[in-house]
Design goal:
Blueprint lengths: L4 H59 L3 H14 L3 E6 L4 E6 L4 H15 L8 E6 L9 E10 L2 E11 L3 H49 L14 H50 L7 H29 L8 E4 H10 L2 H6 L3 E5 L6 E4 L1 H17 L6 E9 L2 E8 L6 H4 L23 H11 L4 E6 L3 E9 L13
Parallel strand pairs: 7-9
Antiparallel strand pairs: 1-2, 1-5, 3-4, 4-5, 6-8, 9-10, 10-12, 11-12
Helix pairs in contact: 1-2, 1-4, 4-5, 5-6, 6-11, 7-9, 9-11
């Protein structure tokens, strides 16, 4: 549980804050509406009572009823209803006060302030009211309703009916109790839900953290079980893919180190042995020329390897500058083929070249594209068996020229096709000097074509052989001409 504590606490604290804000808002809204409704009912009740007393005084003056009957009626009304009834004379002096409300003494001062507001603001036959509020939603308002007592056109007194809004405090207390109980229950449930949610989120994150530490130590055999289809699941899948890529990169890097070490160590050992043999007389002088030729061949091969490595370094450091000009791609391919005639004849390879006699002008770096063609042609010859076939042809479509180089050699496994241009990758994982190479030539080819904003692809199928195809843009003046199509 310790590892979930931080995430659990943050989620739960956020939920508690939102819950408390929501509870406070609900309380404020509910209590405000309750007070408003209770206040309206109190005003209406006191208004009816004041109106009835006013009518009693009017009938008294019209019918001549006795004072005893009038005051008995007013007393009965005051006694059966909550609140108090006060009668003032024409000079606003209270002459009659009928109070049967036990709580009246608690709000008498507020009723008096209401009367002071109402006095002088009454017109003949009019009923008005005043409300005393402190502004606190938990405070019970005091209402005073007043009506003038008229005799003819003259106002001879005023009726005041005072009352306090009933039931608000108890209802507010019940609402608060229910809210507190609800909040406690929701907090308990949310704690359980939040803990489970944080556990489900934290578990794969903890596993990724642990796996990342293993990756940092060089242990790339890491895979996390995907148990979620949401964002966490996607993150887990991405992490697993990253771990697989790192493992593949480490495997190819190890293979590269092994290949380079082998490619350097073997010729250096041979060179050292030959030179030492010539120095100590083991190799007779008449054979020195033969062994010096072997030494020269080995040094050339090591130099080629170093050039490839330097090219790779320049590509990775973004110091690979292109010098684009217009030139004939068919002529460049012909020159490249000439360099491989001896190797082709030595292996009795059937060479088929299908290039148009007319010029096909492209805009690219001629030296770099020659490097691409030589590398691909070298691979085609190298991996072509005795008596096999190598083909070269070009096609032009949609402002592009496609250069195709194929051989009938061993098929590249389908699972290796997607890695064929990866740096340090070799289909043959063994250190076999019969098929020399470090696995960086095709990665350099890929980078050169990418820097030209063009595409290169490879297909390898039984019976059709292996075909490398890359594109180059036609020169501006070449587009639109009727060029050769295979």
């Amino acid at each position: 549980m310790f590892r979930y504590r931080t995430l659990f606490a943050r989620i739960w604290a956020t939920f508690i804050a939102l819950l408390l804000v929501a509870a406070i808002l609900v309380n404020v809204i509910a209590i405000s509406r309750l007070r408003k409704q209770a206040l309206a009912e109190t005003v209406l009740s006191l208004h009816d009572r004041c109106s009835m007393i006013q009518n009693a005084f009017t009938q008294y003056y019209e019918t001549g009823e006795t004072d005893e009957a009038l005051f008995a009626y007013i007393s009965q009304m005051a006694q059966t209803k909550s609140g108090s009834v006060q009668i003032a004379d024409a000079y606003d002096k209270i002459v009659i006060e009928l109070n049967y409300d036990a709580a009246y003494s608690g709000y008498a001062d507020y009723a008096r302030q209401n009367r002071e507001v109402l006095v002088g603001n009454l017109h003949s036959g009019e009923i008005a009211y005043a409300i005393y509020e402190i502004g606190n939603m938990y405070y019970t308002p005091v209402v005073t309703v007043a009506a003038a007592i008229c005799r003819g056109e003259a106002t001879i007194g005023t009726i005041f009916v005072n009352g306090q809004v009933q039931g608000v405090a108890d209802t507010v207390r019940h609402i608060q109790q229910a809210t507190v109980a609800g909040v406690v229950i929701v907090l308990l449930l949310s704690g359980i839900v939040t803990f489970e949610l944080s556990r489900r989120i934290s578990k794969p994150l903890y596993q990724m953290n642990r796996a990342a530490k293993e990756l940092a130590k060089g242990n790339f055999d890491q895979e996390i079980e995907v148990t979620d289809k949401g964002e966490i699941g996607q993150l887990t899948e991405t992490f697993n893919a990253m771990a697989q890529d790192l493992k593949k990169y480490e495997d190819t890097r190890s293979s590269f180190v092994g290949n380079v070490s082998h490619e350097l160590k073997s010729p250096l050992t041979a060179i050292q042995g030959f030179i030492q043999g010539m120095q100590d007389g083991t190799i007779p002088p008449q054979e020195h020329q033969t062994y010096l030729s072997i030494v020269l061949s080995e040094t050339r091969r090591m130099n080629s390897l170093i050039v490839d490595l330097l090219d790779l370094v320049r590509i990775e450091s973004d110091q690979f500058v292109l010098n684009k000009t217009d030139w004939d791609v068919n002529e460049l391919i012909r020159r490249c083929i000439i360099n491989f005639i001896d190797k082709i004849e030595e292996k009795h390879i059937d060479l088929a070249v299908d290039l148009p006699e007319t010029r096909t002008m492209v805009t690219a770096d001629a030296d770099r594209i020659m490097q691409v063609v030589i590398n691909l042609l070298d691979n085609a010859v190298k991996f072509c068996g005795e008596g096999g076939s190598v083909k070269l042809w070009t096609t032009v479509t949609s402002g592009k020229v496609q250069i195709n180089i194929s051989n009938s050699g061993k098929i590249i496994p389908e699972e290796d096709i997607k890695y064929i241009f990866d740096r340090f990758f070799k289909v043959d994982k063994s250190h076999n000097r019969k098929t020399p190479g470090t696995g960086i030539g095709l990665s350099i080819v890929k980078e050169i074509i990418n820097r030209h904003d063009e595409q290169i692809r490879v297909s390898s199928q039984q019976g059709l052989g292996t075909v490398f195809t890359f594109t180059l843009p036609l020169a501006a003046h070449q587009e639109g001409k009727n060029t050769h199509k295979r």
